[in-house]
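Recap from last week: sequence in, structure out.
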Amino acid sequence: MHARVMSVDFVTCVRALGTGDLDLADATSRELLRRCALIDYEPFRCWGRLARARLEEARHDLAAAMIECADALASARRLGLAHYLSFTLAECGRIAALAGDVPRADAALAEAIDTAEQAGAGWFAAFARVRLADVRRTQGDHSGAETLLRQVVEWSSGPFAGAGRATYFRRLGGDPVATATARLSHAEPAPQAL
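Predicted structure tokens:
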């Protein structure tokens, strides 16, 4: 019962973020974290912190977003699940890049890719590669970004590309294959916001 209610809170929060309803995103993420504290449920604690990082990013408070990412990362490390850890590291890397901390972004994204690859979690490695490609492009390394995006597209043609636990992850992070394909086919300029 609790997990289902927390799931609704999370989905509501992500939709609110998508529509720009920051007050609703704030309220639902706080409620999600309150429920997690009541039953000490780490998976949704991680989600709640990631959602709050996105909320703080939308509020243009990258320092607060980095704090939320650090809390989400601590939660993901406690979980000890490679897919949570890789995804959270990728989000931490994205926020660090937005804050202008490229070395921190590079380290988090490299760890995200390595964690996913060691676990055989290809979707999560693809997701982190797209994030790292964004960092490369904003730093002017277009060929490095293209190489990473091509690796994602190449992976997508493999037998396990559609496999994996990526439901909530896709809801929050999008589809890395579609992103990589679009960026390669349209030669998009470097993203303004990662």
